[in-house]
Amino acid sequence: MGVMDPAASTSDDALLRAAAAGDDAAFALFYRRHLDGVVAFLRRRVGDPELAFDLTAETFAAVVLAAPGWRGEGEPAAWLYGIARNKLRESLRRGRVEDAARRRLRLEPVDLDDADLRRVEERAASGAGHLAASLAELPEPTRRALVARVVDEREYAEIAAELACSEQVVRQRVHRGLRALRARMEEAR
Amino acid sequence: MSGDAFDELERGLRRAVRREAGVASEPAAAPVPVRPRRSRRFTRRGGALALVAALVVGGGALAATGALDVGAPLPDEPGPPPTPHVGAGTAQGPMRILPLRVADPDGGPPWALRTFASSRGGSCVQVGQVLDGRFGRVRPGAGGRDQLRPISATPGQDSLCSFVARNGYPVVRGLRSIEITGGVTDPRQCGGGPCPVTAVRTIRYGLLGPAARRATYVGAGGRAGASQTIDGAHGGAYLFVLRTDPAPYAHTGERGSHGPGPVRDAIRARFADGTVLRVAGHGRTHAALPGVARHVAAPTSVRAAVTATHTGDLAHATWTVVFHAPVAITRADHGYTLTVAGHAGRDCSLRTGRGGGDATTSDIARGEAISFTIGPAFGGGKRTTWCPGAFRFRIGYRSGSGPFRGRLVGAATFTVPRR
């Protein structure tokens, strides 16, 4: 049975605020809490564990840069996944993994060997449940539609039948959910 | 300092957090620790090599020579023996040593790639050296002499399995490993201490599919280095074995606090349609490889009745969620998943099953009864009671690289009343 990290006593909001003040231990807690979920989120969308690692690194680097701008509006997890999604989109658009945040932070590239690649796959498998956690912070109807469509990649008709509403309503909820996630992309550029 | 790539990333990010906020580094943080790099040569089979070490007398000349012979096979890594229908499975069918050969820069046997299929749908690749038709690695063998020690074809052990394959060959964009001769990871001793590092090789390899035509090694700074023609008929394999300066490895025998620092090399590949992609290493793309469009055949329906029964009172219940598999599972990247939606967390403020979930890891026959057992700790690891409110167990069918939750098979719900 999957198990989440037990260090749940400090909120993500508090961790981000502490990290912005230079508390690297708080950042580490935030990183460990969400790492598997972010890896799982990205691994499902790219065909290579190496690329998933790079995007994960870029996502958390962007979090470091954006943390000082965190005002506690919205849910940190949704904000984090918004950054991840934005990094993924940017990378797809450019045809290469975005590394602007890592360069700004002067982070050295992490070299991966075979064992690391297997570790990516392990984390992706164990962290899959975290994704649902991040999206769960959205309003329930929106979250259900968004998860069904974007995460589970199901057909609108099937979702509409399950949620007992029209396809048009499902589309509106998905659109609303994506817009809410995008609104939280406060990463520094 | 040790750990994997994620630990190394965490250390870098923590330093960045302090820098961004203008907080001085902790005194103990200097010099900045760098993750030791594992050498495929000696660390991956440490258990076996420890036994060999007891037989070895000191000797410094570890480099491969023309006098090598084939020794006993290297034992598999410790752990339960692989089984055909569980986890990564076992090797199945013929093993193919690809025609591609690359000379060893230090005079050892030539390097090659071997591919094989796994019993659970994977296509696997491993890198090694070839001597007298045998595939293995040069390791201390009988009497402490270097020998070509054959390695097994076991999915996940000294191999990487892909679930994308073309024409029977795996598609793997790029893997990198370091082969070190000597140093602290060599079990042999020289004058009571580690033998000097006498050779380091950087190995980059992959299989880019039938449309790949040429691969070029791109060194640090973007300088194009060695280049090789790719045979698309044999999986589009490429393999570079490059002599690497051993000096940075002198103290640790592998990348460590005095290691060589970041690696910025890469592999650039050209394809039949003229596309050029940086497929592996620094600045790599994740654009689709030409000729390797992914095809996933999805079953038309995966719905099934799901029942949930519990023991104990609702607040403390242990639930058993049961369904009959609507589709057979025969691949390691396919399976059924359980996720839980509901209130969780220390103060029940989480509205999901964060981290709560389970998945099958073995073959399943169509119609076979599958059960997951789940308790109140699903969402937090420490809870002994379910939070008040509604819960939904969702069974999913996961195929290929799709979402973990997968397509909906069925669901069951229950409500825990407020206490």
Would you give an account of this structure?
The complex is a heterodimer of chains A (189) and B (419). Helix content of chain A is 68%, strand content 0%. Chain A is mainly α. In chain A, 54% of the residues are buried. With 419 residues, chain B is mostly beta strands. In chain B, strands 1, 2, 3, 4, 5 and 6 form a six-stranded antiparallel β-sheet that branches. In chain B, strands 9, 10, 11 and 14 form a four-stranded antiparallel β-sheet that branches. A four-stranded antiparallel β-sheet of chain B has the order 13-12-15-16, with no helix packed on it. In chain B, a hairpin with a 4-residue loop joins strand 15 (266-271) and strand 16 (276-281). Classes of the chains: A mainly alpha (189), B mainly beta (419).
Helix amount of chain B, in percent?
under 10%
Task: Give the strand tally of chain B.
Answer: 23
State the helix count of chain A.
10
Number of helices of chain B: 2
Query: Uncertain spans of chain B, ≥5 residues at pLDDT below 50?
Result: 25-65, 252-259
**Mean pLDDT of chain B, as a whole number?**
79
| Rg of chain B computed from alpha carbons, rounded to a whole number of angstroms | 25 Å
- The sequence of SSEs of chain B as H and E is HHEEEEEEEEEEEEEEEEEEEEEEE
Strand content of chain A: under 5%
Biggest pleated sheet of chain A: none
End-to-end Cα distance of chain A: 40 Å
Low-confidence segments of chain A, given as residue ranges, are 1-8, 129-134, 182-189
N→C terminal distance of chain B: 49 Å
Strand content of chain B: 35-45%
Chains forming the largest contact: A-B, 80 and 79 residues
Chain-averaged pLDDT of chain A: 74
Evaluate the radius of gyration of chain A.
17 Å
Q: Helicity level of chain A, as a percent range?
A: 55-70%
